[in-house]
Structure formats: C-alpha cells, structure tokens
Design goal:
Shape: elongated
Order of helices and strands: HEHEHEHEHEH
Largest sheet: 5 strands, parallel
Number of helices: 6
Number of domains: 1
Helix content: 40-55%
Mean pLDDT: 85
CATH class: Alpha Beta
Low-confidence stretches: 190-197
C-alpha cells in the first residue's frame, strides 16, 4: 500500500469522524433547545394526581409548588418519591395537606428512572391516568419523557423560583441522552447521615 492510498484512507476516516461529531453536536444542541423550551412551559391543568417525582433533599420550592397546586384544586391526591418519601410527606403535611391524600412508595430510590417507575406503579394501582409533575425547570423534559414511557398522561409545571443556568441545562441535556441511549439515569447522592450525638459527660 503506497502513501497515497494510506492518505486517502486517513482522509476518509477523518471525514467520518467529523461527520459523527457533527451529528452528536446537533443532537446535543437539539435536546438543549427542547430542554430550554420545556423549562418555560407551564402546563398546569386538572389531573388525577400531582407528582413530585424525584428529590434528593428536602427542597422547599418543590413542596411549596405542589401544595399550591393542590390547594388550587388541580388534583385531589399527591404522590412524592425520592430518597426519603416519609420525610417528604411530612413536608407536605406541614403545609396543611392531609396525610390521607399523600401517597408514597414503600422504598426509597436513588435515581429518577426508579422514582418514575414507582410513581407509575402507584398511579396504576389507584387508576390514575393523568399526572401533573412538579419539577426543576431543566429536568422536566426528561421527567415527562420517563412518565410517558411508563404510560402516564403527563404534564409539567416548572418551579419558577429555581431558574436554571447554562451548566444545569447542559447537565440535563446529557441526562436525557444517557436515558435515550443507555436506558438509565444518573444516580443521586446518598443523603447525609444524621450527626452523631454528643458524648455523655464524664462520670466521676
């Protein structure tokens, strides 16, 4: 094989590589634009249940938004899933929501996909068809995609007090592609353990 043939092969490989990079960049830009559009799209409407789909901490804006939608009559029940559902239920009860209307899964979850799977199981068991999902604006596109894949008629309500920045939008774009390509979602950090109690005073 002469140098000209080697150069032609190298050129074709480079062209194919640039084409793949261009397609990947176009895909990322497209999902980024869709993520930005969904983050501004408030789809609040009457539904069977209001859902806080995935939390890793006790985020007050999520609970405030869900409680407001419930009190305005958008749904008569709520589902909350994530790393500590009993604590999240307590947050809603503290906002004057009756515990009888709050549904939680039996176990905690460590990623968004598992949370939506649990939400879908609860919805199916209670014959809920439509869900109104409260979430961070940049995460709504992925969360609605997950809910739709589990057969839910899902609508999103972005939490306006949590405005995304470019870094969070890019991360959410990569999260979306991770699910689209690999069928998985990013794990959330484990909750911090409670502080240890102070040692007992020394005895004489």
């Amino acid at each position: 094989m002469d140098l000209q043939s080697i150069a032609q092969i190298g050129l074709r490989l480079l062209q194919n590589l640039l084409l793949l990079l261009g397609v990947a960049a176009a895909g990322i830009i497209l999902v980024l634009l869709l993520t930005m559009a969904q983050s501004r799209n408030d789809q609040a409407r009457r539904a069977d249940v209001i859902v806080i789909a995935h939390l890793d901490t006790s985020s007050a804006p999520h609970f405030d938004a869900a409680a407001r939608l419930y009190q305005q009559g958008y749904a008569s029940r709520l589902i909350v899933a994530g790393s500590d559902p009993p604590a999240f239920r307590d947050q809603l009860i503290a906002r004057r929501i009756s515990p009888e209307v709050i549904l939680i899964p039996p176990i905690t979850t460590t990623n968004r996909l598992a949370s939506i799977r649990q939400v879908a199981a609860i919805a199916q068991a209670n014959q809920f068809k439509s869900v109104l999902i409260v979430d961070q604006p940049e995460q709504l596109l992925l969360t609605l995609k997950l809910a739709g894949d589990y057969g839910l008629d899902a609508y999103g309500v972005p939490i306006n007090s949590l405005q995304p920045n470019l870094a969070s939008l890019l991360q959410s774009t990569l999260d979306y592609w991770q699910y689209a390509l690999l069928g998985s979602t990013r794990a959330i950090p484990a909750p911090a353990p409670p502080p240890l109690p102070p040692p007992p005073p020394p005895t004489n």
